[in-house]
């Protein structure tokens, strides 16, 4: 099976490594307008990779792709994905699907029209503990959902764990709307909203507050530091549950941590893990039956589950589109758009 990669920044490295682990799958061509990134990538993974400096050139020269990964910066997602879809090639896109709901809807509709396999890489779906949480909730053994608490914590604005954000383009572009960033909301908020609605169900109404901390300064080099650094939101779900969903880059003490707690009529489930993929990724905590009166949580270690990369390849082989697909990506983007609207109007807004 022949794959191509568009965009050879940091995230593309994992794409190459994960797809290369799958029997019969081979990344044969890569593309990037940034020739420095392109050359660094091929130096690491092999000069046998065919290199292109534009998506147009790649699509013109390469034939019979089984799939292409779109790893470009957020602001180029729509442009690149449209070109791939017009060629009727299966597509694996990094999040977010697009910069706004209207563009995400265009991509979703075209993917369906062209009848191609389409997937958005919501990374944290791969946690087996999380997948067990979703399965438990949907089995209805815990009854109706009452309250939800979801948080995504990062600390790179207060910690040098991953490097000094004031000196590295890797971080600075995420703080600048002119460089295609929708702030913490678009960068990691997209994950926590997908994480939550996939497990709990659709959000009906939201009241969001976006925060940009001015003490960072106004500008560093070419980067204007105007993107949001975090948000809090109150949500009402279509199933009657309520809850809070938040995200921040000022979470001192946390490198990259997701938490989801779901409290139900007859019990509760929760997961907490970080990007290091230690045993927390396979751990589910549940409080049910006799443990309810003792406020005791049982820890369950869950068997490993397929990665998004494996799901994408399986979908191509079977012709049946697995999750998370473009439709889910568009649904999450709609929520992000409504967060901005709610913040601007300082009021509750309907998602639909």
What does this protein look like?
The chain is of the alpha/beta class. The protein has two domains: 2-123 and 310-325, NAD(P)-binding Rossmann-like Domain (Rossmann fold, 3-Layer(aba) Sandwich); 126-305 and 333-350, Dihydrodipicolinate Reductase, domain 2 (2-Layer Sandwich), CATH 3.30.360.10. 33% of the residues lie in helices and 26% in strands. The chain has helices at residues 10-20, 35-45, 55-61, 77-86, 101-114, 128-138, 169-172, 183-200, 308-318, 326-345; strands at residues 2-6, 26-31, 50-52, 67-70, 91-93, 118-120, 145-154, 203-211, 219-220, 223-224, 230-237, 242-248, 256-264, 267-274, 283-288, 298-301, 349-350. A nine-stranded mixed beta sheet has the order 16-15-14-13-7-12-11-8-17. Strands 3-2-1-4-5-6 form a six-stranded parallel beta sheet, sandwiched between helices. The protein has a two-stranded antiparallel ribbon with strand order 9-10. Helix 4 (77-86) runs parallel beside helix 5, helix 5 (101-114) runs antiparallel to helix 10 (326-345) and helix 8 (183-200) crosses helix 10. The protein is globular, with a radius of gyration of 20 Å. The model has no long low-confidence stretch (mean pLDDT 96).
């Amino acid at each position: 099976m022949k794959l191509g990669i568009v965009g050879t920044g940091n995230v593309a490295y994992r794409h190459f490594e994960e797809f290369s682990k799958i029997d019969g799958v081979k990344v044969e061509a890569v593309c990037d307008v940034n020739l420095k990134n392109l050359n660094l990538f091929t130096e690491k993974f092999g000069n046998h990779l065919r290199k292109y400096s534009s998506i147009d050139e790649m699509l013109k020269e390469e034939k019979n792709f089984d799939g292409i990964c779109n790893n470009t910066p957020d602001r180029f997602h729509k442009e690149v994905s449209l070109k791939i879809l017009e060629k009727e090639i299966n597509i694996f896109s990094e999040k977010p699907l697009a910069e706004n709901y209207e563009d995400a809807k265009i991509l979703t509709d075209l993917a369906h029209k062209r009848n191609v396999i389409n997937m958005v890489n919501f990374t944290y779906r791969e946690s087996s503990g999380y997948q067990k949480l979703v399965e438990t909730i949907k089995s209805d053994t815990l009854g109706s959902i009452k309250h939800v608490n979801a948080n995504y914590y990062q600390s790179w604005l207060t910690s040098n764990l991953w490097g000094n954000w004031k000196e590295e383009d890797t971080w600075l572009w995420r703080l600048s709307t002119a460089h295609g960033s929708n702030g913490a909301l678009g960068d990691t908020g997209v994950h926590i909203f997908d994480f939550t609605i996939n497990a709990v169900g659709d959000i009906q109404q939201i009241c969001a507050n976006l925060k940009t901390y001015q003490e960072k300064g106004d500008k560093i080099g070419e980067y204007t530091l105007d993107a949001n650094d975090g948000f809090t939101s109150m949500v009402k779900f279509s199933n009657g549950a309520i809850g809070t969903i938040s995200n921040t880059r000022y979470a001192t003490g946390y490198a990259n941590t997701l938490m989801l707690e779901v409290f139900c009529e007859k019990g509760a489930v929760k997961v907490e893990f970080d990007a290091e993929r230690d045993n927390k990724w396979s751990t589910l905590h549940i409080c049910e039956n006799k443990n309810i009166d003792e406020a005791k949580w049982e820890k369950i270690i869950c068997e490993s589950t397929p990665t998004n990369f494996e799901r994408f390849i399986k979908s191509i082989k079977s012709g049946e589109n697995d999750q998370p697909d473009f439709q889910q990506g568009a649904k999450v983007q709609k929520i992000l758009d409504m967060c901005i609207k709610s913040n601007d109007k300082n009021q509750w807004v309907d998602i639909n």
